[in-house]
Automatic annotation (TrEMBL):
It comes from the Eukaryota. PANTHER family: LARGE RIBOSOMAL SUBUNIT PROTEIN ML37, MITOCHONDRIAL RIBOSOMAL PROTEIN L37. This is Uncharacterized protein. It comes from Homalodisca liturata. InterPro entries: mtLSU_mL37. One of its GO terms (cellular component) is mitochondrion.
Length: 149
């Protein structure tokens, strides 16, 4: 391996993190500062009184422009319906499979490889002069530029 400038650089973040790992395990040293201050008749104050201040609570009701809480829907609400509305999305689990999906989406399953006659006529009418070459080139370009391989 060739020794290059980026290879020779140190990872300072890793070094700082390791330094913090080492420094956090150091014990607090006794300096006898308390005894010296008492000998000089100076007042001692506990540092925890200043560090552990009481937490302030914020009243969120004073913010202007917050959206009001939604009103529960009862019979007087304009969007109230007796029967609930269910959603079918990508993350929905269908226990009955395809028949349940067809019933939920109000669709009909087409037969395999058969299009309706109206659409089949449109397919037959539109023919490109070099459509086979275009399809082959499209398939080749997708295989060539495929990132999953």
């Amino acid at each position: 391996m060739k020794f290059t400038i980026p290879l020779g650089k140190h990872n300072l973040y890793r070094m700082m993190r390791n330094q913090w790992k080492v420094a956090r395990k150091r014990p607090v040293l006794k300096t006898n500062a308390e005894r010296v201050l008492q000998a000089n008749n100076l007042e001692l104050v506990d540092a925890n009184e200043f560090v552990a201040s009481p937490k302030k609570t914020f009243d969120f009701s004073s913010i202007v422009g917050l959206a009001p809480h939604p009103v529960p829907k009862d019979e007087n609400h304009p969007l109230y319906k007796e029967q609930p509305c269910f959603f079918y999305r990508d993350h929905s689990v269908l226990l009955e499979g395809l028949p349940q999906a067809l019933a939920l989406t109000n669709t009909v399953q087409l037969e395999a490889d058969i299009l309706p006659p109206r659409i089949q006529k449109l397919v037959d009418q539109v023919q490109l002069p070099n459509q086979d070459e275009l399809v082959q080139r499209c398939i080749k370009s997708t295989c060539l530029h495929r990132t999953g391989m």
